[in-house]
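Lab notebook: predicted structure, single chain.

Context: the supervisor wants predicted structures on file for every construct in the current expression panel, including those that have not yet been purified. This is the next one on the list. No modifications to the sequence; it matches the entry in the shared construct table.
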Amino acid sequence: MVRTMISLAALLVATPALAQAWQTVRSPDGRIAVDLAVDRGEAVYRARYDGRPILDRSRMGFRFRDAGPGDAGLVLVDSRRTSQDRAWTQPWGERRAMRERYQGLAATVAAADGRQLGVEIRVFDDGFGFRYTLPGTRDQALVVSDERTEFHFARNYRAWSIPAYREKFSEYEYSRSALSAIQTAQTPLTLEGDGVAMAVHEAALVDFPSMNLRMPEENSRTLKADLSPWSNGDLARTHGGAVTPWRVVMVAPDAARLADSTIVLNLNEPNRIGDVSWVRPEKYIGIFWAMHTGLLTWEPGPKLGATTGRAKAYIDWAAAHGIKGVLVEGWNVGWDVPEWWKNGRSKFTFDQAQPAFDMAAVSAYAKAKGVDLIGHHETGGQVRDYLRQLEPALDYYDRHGVRSIKLGYVGTRHDETEWPDGQYAVENLQTVVEAAARHRIAVFPHEPVKDTGLRRTWPNLMSREGARGQEYNGGSPDGGNAPDHTTILPFTRLLSGPLDYTPGVFAFDYRATRPDNRVASTLANQLALYVVLYSPVQMAVDLPEHYDRNLPAFQFIRDVPTDWETSRTLQGKIGEYAVVARQDRAGPDWYLGAITNDDARTVAVPLDFLEAGRRYEATIYADGPGADWRSAPERVAITRRIVTSTDQLSILLAAGGGQAVRFRRL
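Prediction complete. Output recorded below exactly as produced.
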């Protein structure tokens, strides 16, 4: 960030004209305009899209404990234009080639006591972000008592949101409402209407609490930043000169274009690790679904899932069916603690296997078979205890060749008192990510702090849960996710980054152990999720014996990559349907996924994303005759045809249905 320091005398003679003037920053394509000003002593901004207001006058700034107001009586003392246009490459991701192109403004405002606040704005073609540099020097402690940032929207847009400060954290189904009906919301918060789609989120969240949103006055169009607090009421414990995360507004003409936004990644810092060739996208299997559907257990007993024999059997199956990884949960000591998931009860040990699991034998067996053993660290929310054991735990995995870890933070509070999206959680997850990087180990946390694009800076942070995943279909008391749930996620949760949803259910009747649960989709829909819901680590969640009953359909899971050259959201309406196409990073083939909600529909999809002048064999995995998620979810029809970029597919989707297609270039 560019800052110019000037004398206090100069601050005091800042002219009213300078303080009042709006300065405009436009996106490179000219469609987005963001204005910044100091107006009536307040730092404020507003924004337009294609000439129409999308955000009206919105306040900016902070208030600090034991300090005067930092958001009033301000004067503008300096501003400078900035710009960037550079290419960079994702080592893995939904697209290889990235372009970081923006126009910007770096400004300094000052309070009457001379304290200075930096404000930097960057405007991209797909949205804008702004961040602050806090007043003072690094040796001066600051406690934030309020962030004053507002988002005063120009219209009462339709909103898709999940509430903040709830016991299940981010694991809720999304609600559709008017913007004015929101009380609290987590980000990303998605809005649409009047020819625009938008989302509010943040980028580069480190050393700061998560930003939620709150409506300070009922039935208004203004949302305010609401930082997840410490248990004593502090919002952020920081220091002078600290740079905050970016406050981001993504902007697009429609939901499909919004889903392809890259602004969150582009607002993060470049790779700090260096060589990350050891970070490998892959598919994996495991005993996860058997435990969630009640066939096996994490805890010791007659149905214990994590045994040496079962792990070797899964490794054999993975090796025989082209699946690179096997995840074993419940392998370590501590799962016998009653109700370990309740705050303060878990007592896990992370470098000692329970008696039924021989880590040395299993890891050696996996290595001999060419299969990656994926580790599992469930903390039960006991973060302090986990960090105390972290280095021995990583050393243990080093010795056994484990190069990736699924993390778990089950519980409503960390260490019994702190919100799982507060500064305590943010800083502790960052500690784990950096420690894992030193050991050349990748991580993908469940029950995580939300994604804010840090995978650009720390590419070993591969994926996250942070949503109601497939597990809710397996054992949730409320019966599972509605059919529209996965048609909402591409336009909401996935705006923040990859989602470890764990798709791939093939057997839909598990009433013997879970009489009240269903997967509200067809088998073809489950296949399509591998394309629609991006993650560099994708689980084939069902039991191997269920895949053995339908190996022709399982072929799509074998074939579909988890690392992509490029990606395009072709069509979609939030909560109704989504169509996504992605090209394999390792070759010329394309893959398509289409899903729908509880309404059967036909979608016409032009194939103009294919290479012109080339022929492709399309292998189509469609809902079979009579398929319906309620009565016949397993019916799938597999056909082949030759297509070119001038063709169009007519995709028939059953209720809760889907279609997956591989386009093999001839």
